[in-house]
Amino acid sequence: MVGHDNRDNRILTHIHTQQGEEGIDTLKPGFVALFSFSFALAMGAVWEIFEFSMDASIGFNMQRTDTGVFDTMSDLIVDTLGALFVCIAGYFYLKKDPKIFKRLEDRLLK
Fold first, then answer.
1. What is the dihedral of CA 14, 40, 50, 55, to 10 degrees?
2. Which among 43, 44, 83, 49 has a CA at the least distance from the CA of 68?
3. DSSP symbol at 26
4. Torsions phi, psi of 22, nearest 5?
């Protein structure tokens, strides 16, 4: 799901601004990548639960009833691949430049 990445970035920025100067820059890149990956997969699972709930309670056909399991699994696989790609890229980016979040925040808030 494409929308997950934007939410992840907003939450990480929020964590950084709440912690002040030390913030996320003191976290290890592996932890940030693992947290981001887990959060993205959790949001994908929450979305699938939402789809199922709408189908079951209101009668929507968000999961395409005849192929519901295939739809759910393909969505979760795409979520996993997208999260994995972004987290691996983010990991190496943070390894190269651990103060990136501070500079990004400074640019966005000016």
1. 150
2. 49
3. G
4. -70, -55
Contacts 24+ apart (CB under 8 A), 69-75: 72/48, 75/1, 75/44, 75/47, 75/48
Residues comprising the chain, all counted: 110
d(CA 102, CA 53) in angstroms, rounded, equals 40
Q: Distance between CA 2 and CA 8 in Å, rounded?
A: 11
* Residue 24 contacts residue 32 (beta carbons within 8 Å): yes
* Global pTM value: 0.64
Contact 27, 62 (CB under 8 A): no
3-state helix, strand, coil in the chain (%, to 5): 85, 0, 15
31-66 tens-digit pLDDT = 999 999 999 999 999 998 998 888 888 877 777 666
